[in-house]
Amino acid sequence: DPERAVAMAAYMRDLFPFLGIPAPAQKLLAREVLAGLDRPTEADLRAVTTHCWRMPEREYQYFACGLLRRHARILKPGFLSVARILVTTKPWWDTVDALAAHTVGPMVARHPELLATMDEWAVDEDMWLVRTAILHQLTYKEATDAKRLFHYCSRQAGHQDFFVRKAIGWALREYAKTDPAEVRAFVHAHSARLSALSVREALKNL
Question: Which of 29, 68, 118, 168 could staple 103 via S-S, CB 3.0–4.6 A?
Fold first, then answer.
């Protein structure tokens, strides 16, 4: 849909071309494409997602993110190097957030040895790796390593980029659903260093 494609690209600041396929239709098409296929191997996921990332239109990257989310449980620690490439190539919040919460997060939960890499990403010069590290526990709820989350947020409290500041607030707001007192105490203790955006997002539902 050429007209829809223009609008979708504009919403993403014209960073990527689009085919103009809305999200519901994308999901239907994905199911149609995958129907009858064998369960993919990790090598299959690596090949398909890497190829999708080479395609110019953004819907291909959305398909790759959905495929990884569906099969995240089969990914071994070595796949994190692929995830890093996906996070840092054609990066924007739409794909980075999906990869952080639904690919990297489940991988780290299943393979705790990857926490050392999250610690590295949390202080990386690439803001999208920082955002991924901050958001990787987004779905953990009671399993959240609060000490690590607070450390990441404190370490990047003065970050100048909007997307890192937003990630801090979002991660804290999500954890506040599990432990509101701890989040409120953290924000109070670091209010002088946290950006107004991070504080506002963190306390949004408290």
Answer: 68
Q: If DSSP codes are grouped into helix, strand and coil, which group holds residue 159?
A: coil
pLDDT, position 15: 98
User: Mean pLDDT over residues 11-16, rounded?
Assistant: 98
Distances (CA, A) of 116 to 82, 94, 120, 172: 17, 25, 6, 21
Give the C-alpha separation, 67 to 97, whole Å: 15
d(CA 178, CA 112): 21
Q: How far apart are the first and last CA of the chain?
A: 42
**Closest of 77, 92, 176 to residue 153, by C-alpha:** 176
Q: pTM of the entire structure?
A: 0.96
Measured between alpha carbons, how far is 39 from 198 in angstroms, rounded to an integer?
Answer: 41
Neighbours of 200 (CB within 10 A): 14
Contact 159, 123 (CB under 8 A): no
Q: Do 160 and 149 touch, CB atoms closer than 8 A?
A: no
Average pLDDT of the chain? 98
Q: Are 75 and 103 in contact (CB under 8 A)?
A: yes
The predicted structure's pLDDT at residue 113: 98
